[in-house]
Amino acid sequence: MKNNKISIVSRLLLMICGLALLVVLLTPIWRIELQAPQYPEGLRMFIYANKLAGDVNIINGLNHYIGMKTLHADDFAEFKILPAIIVIFSILFIIAGVVAKRRWTVILFFLFVAFGVLAMVDFWRWEYDYGHNLNPAAAIIVPGMAYQPPLIGFKQLLNFGAYSTPATGGWIFVGAGVVLLTILVYEWRRIKKTAVSAPAPALALLLIIPLSLLLSGCNTHPQPIQTGKDHCDFCKMTVSDSRFGAEIVTKKTKVFKFDDAHCIVAFLNSGKINKEQIAGIYFTEFLSPHDLIDVKHVHLLQSPALKSPMNGNIAAFSNEDSLVNLLPTFRGNKISWEDLQK
User: Which residues pair with 334 in a beta bridge?
Assistant: First the structure.
């Protein structure tokens, strides 16, 4: 007869997750950050289970001019029920660990996923109403403009860049869901006798894999520069030559694209972005297939014969041999990224 009990390790993990969910009551679940030239330090709003915090009053003052609703915790019915829901899930996790039945764990997983989906749909619905239901008598009206913040990630709203990301409490929720899914997978494998020995190391390995995938999804990676479609974030010209592009990716996953080395250097020197916010800088490989090269590994050639779009006349290579081979055609000098910025 098949054993319907989950393992000791799974039980402990369920109870730890249950206790961790209680921490969500004390930490922000979500954060929305606004950045603009007049607010270089940024404006931040934190959404807790039962309140709003951060620069809410300043944001309300700005929103008044463009006809957006002011934000008040009393206007959100969610704040009245969300703490109770968190406590209920905390208790359910602990009960599932004590009862130690696979069926309870499966039911808990589907309830938890359903709540997560419902919460995100409700959040999107609130953002849509907040960004579209504008006061027609506002001081500033931009025809056809809506101000819906991003559900997650970055979005440009007039001269403000809006970032929306989970905060500490949100990541605890995600972590609890990942652990719960991992437990289900591990217990299913245990039933099928594919993980007969060393249950603790096997479960640890199963935990590492999805958590690694989750974290990798938050990594900042460069995006391909599309010739004839993308515009330079400094000179505003359309990227016209696939050999000379450059790119900046911020820690919050925003991407700035440039059509020339001159433009990326001028953009950095303009102070429009703090260097502490940068996750990576990339140059387009001069040679086909024009992949993006991390600036840490790039070899740069400066030559007036290159005739790049904005006369930066810099070509990037992934290895020094390629640069040397083109010197007879494009006579010039090898230059470092540090010297290029001077």
Answer: 301
Task: State the Cα–Cα distance between residues 264 and 256, nearest whole angstrom.
Answer: 9
- Name the burial class of residue 71, with classes exposed (0-12), middle (13-18) and buried (19+) by CB atoms within 10 angstroms of its CB: middle
Q: How many Cα neighbours within 13 Å face the side chain of 260? A: 18
Full-model pTM: 0.59
Please state the domain extents for the chain: 8-217, 246-340
Within 8 A by CB and 6+ apart from 43, the residues are 33, 34, 35, 54, 55, 58, 59
CB 237 within 8 A of CB 312: no
- Output the average pLDDT for the chain: 84
Q: Which residues share a beta bridge with 335?
A: 300
Over 50: is that where the pLDDT of 54 sits? Answer: yes
213 pLDDT above the threshold of 50: no
Mean pLDDT, residues 181-210: 63
Strands (E), the chain: 30-36, 39-47, 52-54, 153-157, 160-166, 246-250, 255-258, 278-284, 292-294, 299-302, 314-317, 333-335
C-alpha 9/C-alpha 97 separation (Å) is 10
- Picking from 320, 313, 307, the residue whose alpha carbon sits closest to that of residue 340 is 313
* Residue 149 vs residue 214, higher pLDDT: 149
Of the chain, the end-to-end C-alpha distance in Å amounts to 74
Residue 33 pLDDT greater than 50, yes or no: yes
pLDDT higher at 191 or 201: 191
84-114 core/surface letters (b: 16 or more CB in 10 A; e: else): eebeebbebbbbbbeebebebbeebbeebee
Confidence of residue 196 (pLDDT cuts 50, 70, 90): very low
